[in-house]
Amino acid sequence: MSTFLLIVVTGLGLGALYFLAASGLSLIYGLMGVLNFAHGAFMTAGAYAAWVTMTRLPSSMGVGLRLLVAVVVALLVGAIVGVVVEVVLIRPLYRHHIQQVLVTVGLSLAAVAAVQGIWGADPRAVARPEVMTGTVGLLGARIPVDRFVYLAVALALFGGLLALLRYTRLGLVIRAGVENRTMVEALGIDVQRTFTIVFGLGGAVAALAGVLFSQYAGSVSPGQGGSLLIYAFIVVVIGGMGSLTGTAVAAFAVGLVQQLANYYAVSGVGDLSVVLLLALVLLARPSSLKGATA
Amino acid sequence: MTRPTPATLLRVGLPLLLLAVLAYLPYVPASIPGLLPGRINGPGSMQLLATCLVFAGFALSYDVLFGRTGLLSFGHALFVAAGSYLLTVSLSTWSLPLPVAILAALGGTTMLALVVGGVALRVGGIAFAMVTLAFAQAASIIVLRDPGGVTGGEEGKALNRDAVPSILVGVQNAPYRYWLALAFVTVAFVLVRLLVRSRAGHAMAAVRENEGRAAVLGLTTYRVKLLAIVVGSFLGGLGGVVHALVLGGSSPSLTSAEFTLSLLVMVVLGGAGSTWGAVLGGFLYHYADARLVEAGGSGVFDVLPDTLRAVLSQPLFILGAFFVVVVYFAPSGLTGLGGRLIRKTGAS
Amino acid sequence: MSSVLVLDDVHVRYGGSHVLQGVSFEVPATGVTALLGRNGVGKTTTLKAVLGLAPRTGSVLLRERDIVREPTHRIVAGGIGYVPEDREVFGGLTVEENLRLVGPAEGADAAIVRELFPDLVQRRTQRAGTLSGGQQQMVALARVLLRENDLLLVDEPTKGLAPKLVTEVADVLARVAESTPVLLVEQNLPLVRRIADTVVVLDAGRVVHRGDARELVEDQALTQELLGVSMRREGAA
């Protein structure tokens, strides 16, 4: 029973990370129809920005405080990278969706290679504060606290994004833009600017995902963002391409299935079972894969 | 008999001439400093050229999906890897004779293409790209987990040398492997040309140009796309078989996301939807990848600041950045650019 | 009489087809100008060319300012309200959200909205996608009236509506035109006769007739020649 609980909480924690990785991707796809392959590079950028910040800050500062500063730096770096990529690379190819994908593919290859060139291909250990390494007793199980941190961050982000979509003017424009971009433009609203903001937001969220995932893994490595991106893709497709609630549900389902299969079947089967889950969803309900918000 | 027109002569004659020149290269003892390692017919150059040709074939096989049918698949590496691993595993673990192993590899790859294509085509466009990437990733996971010790995990799976003809084994036999690669790319080239001109090829072009209209014309677009995936995967699987024979084994890098993306890069670099474009793109991509590693190690970039040198010593950085530039400034690839230049100079 | 909008030699090419082949006309600063013509002659494209929703060349002057190089959102924010063919309301948004998208109610017309569309006030929390065609048309009209406009572009507002609703829409347009000039694409000739002052007729991407609305509509031979129809549709307006 206690093992089961541990696995479920770990699965939910992992699902939370998948949600963090997928939500920005889903938001960008829903509004702009852009499959942002560079999203993995955004995550890597965030993770390395945080790692560099933490190593540069004086060690007299507590690890927890350094991590907090690092998260802020990573959010900024992610947002800036997102905005720059949108303005410089995506915008000139407006409405050429395939070329946009190609450009982000090239960017992701180049970015991973650049990181590898500068910091090496090997994983670098990241410092983890006590909050992230400790365990807490729950119904007889010892559960690592970091799982709850990921869950809390993901739920806060989910709630925040829903509120943004529902109650703000930006959210209103995004929801309208998902339905009919041309008409939003024809009502006198600069959709382009909204794209840039959404890309910046997506970059910041991706960077946060990158930092938290490096905390989960205990290290940063150039390929980390890319491997997380593949799970984010699976989550976005299962969740319905652009629906935030769908993305959240799919993220937790994928995290749980992966952990349960890894424990109750052979280790390693979990990753495959996720792909199998994707195949089953595709076979069962391909019609669900249309865009929608919230 | 009608006299062939100059255009036909050019179209048939030029490839034949090129093929003859390439086939003769193992007899050329000259060396091209800087471009090739050692003599042209030395084992280093032969091995490099052979691998470049195999990559040209990979690009041709992927272009059946992307350039000809408009399918943005990120899962093509799966079929290349399937061909390669099915061959090496058949030979060593199952001790099959080479011809049977090749048939098993091709048959297995084709079956896999039917299943994976059949499922992935339930969605279109961008979702299709994401789904195919996920399937390719599954292959990567399987290969790296090394179930039952058959795939060799990160080490890869060596070719069982006793099971292949001795002329394909050993450093001194590099020219034979080169000819094998040349034969593969020739077969792929001819098959793609034939496919493009067939009824199925026209249907693929129709799907690429306008899927909605193709459906109206009574084409079952699902079947046309599935056919493209199966044919492309068959060629990719054949490439995997040849790759394993040329390189003496299967490497898990064939299943990596990087490799599956690089197939796209090759085709777009050369010029999507063009046989010559794919050949050129695949060949140059691998050549640049291999040579840039050496340039990085040779101290060419030593004058640059450390960070920049570190970045530039990564071939994928240069290729990725160059790819972005091509997407912007030469959307029809190098062959498109070349064609434009030729027309321009011809006109002036 | 001054003109609010002047098109001069406007061309639109989509891929291989040359849809507008040098369209030139002026929209007077008052009343309703009807843009007529058979199906597929380029009426909707003309509106889209004005808005920058179609790739155009030539010159488009809005209150003597050339807007041909401006992006759509700036053209619209600069004083053109657009009611597209098929309404194009945001079905997943509520009525209120559809209206709020345009911004806080500011214009003198905002009062008209409340007055003209009491129905919408009642239905403000309903999703626009669940409204009837007529109600959606009201949303599409209301959301442009919320802002001060120098000109309204209205594309077939009565298409597919029941006769009673056609009359309602015509009433609204007539009322709006008292303060804001309207360029109206419309197939319903009785309605054109009722509310339009001038007409511009397109054929195959060119202007073939300009003149008084009533004169054209009442000249059976001319309407037959230019539009291929006469006043068959009775009583709709």
From TrEMBL, chain A:
Localization, UniProt: Cell membrane
A cellular-component GO term for this protein: plasma membrane
Membrane topology designation: Multi-pass membrane protein
Pfam families linked: BPD_transp_2
Gene Ontology molecular functions: transmembrane transporter activity
TM region(s), chain numbering: 6-27, 34-51, 63-89, 101-119, 148-165, 195-216, 228-256, 263-284
Keywords associated with the record: Amino-acid transport, Cell membrane, Membrane, Transmembrane, Transmembrane helix, Transport
Presence of the UniProt keyword Magnesium in the record: no
CDD domains recorded: TM_PBP1_LivH_like (cd06582)
Protein's GO biological process: amino acid transport
UniProt record similarity statement: Belongs to the binding-protein-dependent transport system permease family. LivHM subfamily.
Matching PANTHER family: ABC TRANSPORTER ATP-BINDING PROTEIN, BRANCHED-CHAIN AMINO ACID TRANSPORT SYSTEM PERMEASE PROTEIN LIVH
Protein's recorded name: Branched-chain amino acid ABC transporter permease
The species this protein was found in: Phycicoccus flavus
Phylogenetic classification of the source organism: Bacteria, Bacillati, Actinomycetota, Actinomycetes, Micrococcales
TrEMBL record, chain B:
Coiled-coil residues: none
Record-annotated membrane-spanning stretches: 46-65, 77-94, 100-121, 126-144, 176-196, 226-247, 259-287, 308-330
A cellular component term, taken from the record's GO annotations: plasma membrane
InterPro entries: ABC_transp_permease, LivM-like
Origin organism lineage: Bacteria, Bacillati, Actinomycetota, Actinomycetes, Micrococcales
GO terms assigned for molecular function: branched-chain amino acid transmembrane transporter activity
Location of the protein in the cell: Cell membrane
Matching Pfam families: BPD_transp_2
Domain of life: Bacteria
Protein name as catalogued: Branched-chain amino acid ABC transporter permease
Topology within the bilayer: Multi-pass membrane protein
Species of the source: Phycicoccus flavus
Keyword tags: Cell membrane, Membrane, Transmembrane, Transmembrane helix
